Protein 1
Amino acid sequence: MNLSKEHITALAAERDLSTSELMSLLQAEGLDSLLFSAADKVRRQIYGDAVYVRGLIEFTNCCKNNCYYCGIRRDNQSATRYRLEQDDILACCAEGYELGFRTFVLQGGEDSYYTDAKICGIVSAIRNRFPDCAITLSIGERPKDSYQAYFDAGANRYLLRHETADPAHYRKLHPEAMSLQNRKECLFHLKEIGYQVGSGFMVGSPYQTLDNLVADLRFLQQLQPDMIGIGPYIPHNETPFSKFERGSLSLTLRLIAVLRLMFPYALIPATTALGTIHPQGRELGLQAGANVVMPNLSPVKVRKLYELYENKICTGEEAAQCRGCLERRVESAGYQIVTSIGNVKKPNS
C-alpha cells in the first residue's frame, strides 16, 4: 500500500485507519520523520513541553508466575530475591518527595507475601504522609475486591500491561496456568473501580507478528486506558527465550508515535528499556510522542536484582543522580521536567 502524509494526517485527526493501513504504517520507515513530527505536535497541543516524572520503587522481585520472557520468573534459580518492608518503601518516598516527585509507582512481581492487608497498609501510610501525591500500583493480577481495597486505601492508578492481545500469541509467552481473559478482565475491573489505568505491550517479543501489534492497538481502543506503556523486548539469559533477538528501536518509536496519534491524551512513558537498547533511547521516545519518564527510587542495593531483562541502565545511581541525569536528557530533547502530579488531560477531566 502506498502510504502518504494523508494517512498520518488521518491518524492525527483521530480518524481510524484500516488494519492494512496501520500495518503498512508500522513498516513505513520512510515516513518516520513525518510520523514523529505529527505525534510531537499533538502532544504539545495537549501537554506542551511537559514531561512528567514518576518515582519508581521496585519493592519485590519475588513472583509466583513463570512467564517465559521475564527475568524474575519463578523458575529462575539464579535470581537473588528480595522484599522491601513498609519502612523501606516510605524512606524511598521521602527521598523522592524531597527531589520533587509527586507520583510514586510501586512495582513488583506477583508476590503472595504482600497480602491485601500489607498492600493496604503501605498505601495508607504513603497517602497519610504524602497526601498531595499520586500512588500507582503495578503488582499484577488480583481479585476485584483486592483492587477495590487498594483504591479505598488511597491508590489512584494501576499499571497492568496486557503484553499481547492475541490469545495464540499469549499462549506462546505464558504457561497454561495463566489466562489472557483474566488479564483483560482485571483491566476492566480496575476501570470500573475508578483507577487511572495503564496497559501496554512488548515490541518484538518472541513470535510476535504485525497482526499481533494491530490486535494490541485494537484492544487498547476498546480499553481506552489513561496510560500506555510499551518498550522493546530485551532477552534475559535465565529464561526459555534467552536466544531470541531483542525488539527493534525503530518499530518501538513508530508505535509510540502511532499511540500518541490514536490516543492523544494518553500518558506514554519513554521507558528504561528504550534507554537500555540505545544511548539516546529515552530522548528519541520523547521526540516520538512520549511524555513520561520513570527514574528509579529503589535502594541502590536492590536495583540490579530487579532484572526483568539484562543490562538495565541506572542500576548503580543514587536517586538524585538519576533525577539530575534525566532532567538534563529531557532538556536536551527539547522538553521540561514537571514535578506536578501529572494527571491525564482528557476532555472535560
Note: The mean pLDDT is 95.
Protein 2
Amino acid sequence: MLQFLRNLPKIELHAHLNGSLNIDSIRELAAKVYGVQTKEFSTLCERFIKFEKGAKLDDCFEKFGFVHELTSTKEGLEYATELVIRDFAKDNVIYVELRTTPKANGNMSRRSYLDTVLGVIKNKSDLYKIKVKLLPSINRAEPVAVAEETVALAVELATIEPEIIVGIDFSGNPNQGNFKDFIPVLSKARNHGLKLAMHCAEVDNPVEIREMIRFGMSRCGHGTYLSDSGFEHMKEENIPIECCLTSNVKSGTVANIGAHHLKQLMATCAPKVLCTDDSGVFDTTLSDEFFLATESFGLTKSQCIALTMEAVEHAFATREEKLMLKMQIYKYTRLQNK
C-alpha cells in the first residue's frame, strides 16, 4: 500500500512554505547559502521536529523562528522555495498550493518577498514537473495594517500572474488576534476574485467559529473544533475541510489519531481533502498522511484515489488544469489495474 501511495500522483492544498522544509533540506539550505554545519545547528534541527508529549499548538508556532532566520535573505528564500517544490515533486505531488506570509526585514520588503517566491515558482515548476500556486498569507497575530498591505500586493500581483496567485490564506496562531478585525480586508480579497483558505475551528472558540462560518470561505483549514452543525454547514455549502492528521495529533488539537474527524467526514461523505500542513515541522509527507489514514481508518486504494480526485475538485485551479490533473491520476490508476 505504501508504495502505491508514494507513486500515486497527489494534490496538496494546505502547505505552508517555511514549515514544509524537511530536515535534510534545511541542512542543504544552510550549507549552500550560509555554510552552517555546526553541532549547535544540528541540535536546532533535531529540536525542530521533536514534539514533547502533551505539546500544545502554541509550541508549534515557536518552532518557525528557526526557519524564518534561514529564509530572511533573498538567496535563502529562493533556495528554500525551490527545495520545497522539489521535495513535494519527489513525493509525486503534481499540484501544490503554497502559503506564505510576506515578511519585511532589513533584506527584503513584503513586495520583494512575494516577487522572490513568484520568481522561483515561475522558473522551477516545469523543471520539477509540478503545478504550483501561491496563496499569500495573512498572519492574524500581526496588525491589520500588515494584512491590508498583503492583500493589496496579492490583488496587484494576481493581475500580473493570475494563474499563480489564486487566493489568500488566513492563518497564524489562533489564540492571537481577533477575526472580526480582519473581515474588511478579507472581503476586499474576495471582492477582487481571490479565493479564501481560512484556518477555522483550529481551537475551541465557538463565537469566532460562528463568525467565520457566517463570513464564509472557499476551504476550511483543520476544522478540528467544528460542531455537528458546523460539519453539516460545510457539507451543505460544499466547503472542504483540509485534514492534516499528523499536524493535529502532534500539536495536540486532537487527542489521538483515532479521534480525528476525518473518520466522521468519510462516514458522512462530507467534503474533505488530506494535507500535510507543515511537512517539515511535523516530519511527514503527503504519502505518509495517506498511509496513516489507511492504517488508522482502513481506507482502501479506491478510497485514496477518490480522495485525490476530490482534492482536484477543490483546488484553486482552472478547469483545464483540473482536467489535466485528473488525466494524470487516471493514467496511473489504469496502469495499476492492468
Note: The chain has one domain: 2-336.
Protein 3
Amino acid sequence: MADRTEVVLDQAQVKKAVQALQAFLKNKSTSDFSLLDDTQTISLLFTLWKIPKQAQTIRIPLPHGQRSDTDEICLFTRDEPNMTSEQTQRFYKKLLEERGVKNVSEIIPYKVLRTEYKPYEAKRRLLGNFDMFFSDDRIRRLLPSHLGKHFYERKKEPLCVNLQSKHLARDIQRTIQGTTLKVTNKGCCCMARVGHSGMTAAEVTENIEAAVRTVMAKIRMKGSVMKLIHIKSQTSVALPIYTSDLSHLSVDKKANTQAQAPKKEGATAKKPAKKKQTKDKKQVDAAAEGKAEKGQKKKVQEEEEEEIPQLVPIETPSKKRKVEKPLKKKQLKKAPRPAAAKKGAKAQSKLTQKADSKVKRKAPKVK
C-alpha cells in the first residue's frame, strides 16, 4: 500500500533472541523430563498501530519447512455427481497421484463428513488423528457448521486448495511448509507460527525475515502499520525483535494539517460570500421599512385633514320612572298524592272499619 513505512529487522538482534529462546526451551525440557513432545512451536507476535477495519488471512511461504514428512494430512473433497462416496475417494486418489501429491494420507468426501462424523466423539477422534487438514475450495463455506468449534480453537481449521490447479503439488507443498497469519478486526495483535525448537537458529531467523516481508506486503492497511514484533513460544516470555520509531507520528500530523488547510481556505472563502448576502438582505429590509413608514405617515396626514363632525345627543324631557310593585308571593299548592298511595290508604281505611264492626258485634250484651 502507499505511504507505508518499511520494517527493517536487525539480523544479529533477531538471531540473539532466537538463541536465547532455544536455550530456555532446552533447559525447560531437561528439567521437566518431557520425552514425548520434545519440540515446541516458535511464533511471531505482531502488534499493530491501529485495529484493522477488515479481517484478513495472509498465507506466508517459508524458506525452511516447519513440518516433518511424517505428519498426517487429511483432505475434504466435494461429492462428485453420479458417484458414491467410495468412487469419489478413488477418483481423487488417482488425481493426486497423477499430479504428484504424496503427502495426503486420507480423503474424506463431504457426504461422509456429514453422516459418519456427525457425533461429537467422532469429530474429536478426527481432530486427534491428523496434524493438518485441507479442503476443496468449492466446499469451504459448508465446513464450519459440520466441523465444530474445536477445529478452530486448536487452530487446525482446513486450508483451502484448488484441486483443479495445474500446479497442485507445488501449491500443497507451499501450504504445508508455510504458515498463515489471521488479522482480525477485533484487536491489534496477531500471531503466526514460523518454526519449532528442533530447527537451527539460522533457519528460524530466515523464516522470521520472510514472514515479516510478506506480512508487510500483503496487509490491507495504509500508513504506518507495525508497532512491535515479538518472538515467543507457548510457555516463554515474548522477546522483542522490532520496535517502531515515533518519527512517523509527526509525518502523519503534517499530512493531516495539510489535508485540513485547503478545507479551512474553502471555509474562509465561503464566509465573505455569506457576509455579502447578509448585507444585501439588510439593505433590502431597510428600504422596505422606509417605504412602509412613508405610507403610514401619508395615511395619518389624510386622516388629520378629513375631520369627522362630532354628533351631539338630543336632550328629551325626563319622565318619572314608575316604581315597580313587589310581586305577591304565590301560595304554594300541596303536591297531589300518587294514585297508588290513595288506593293503599282507602284499602287500609276499609280494613279498619271492618275490624271495628267485628269487635262491636262480638261484645256481650249487658243485662
Note: The chain has ten helices and ten strands.
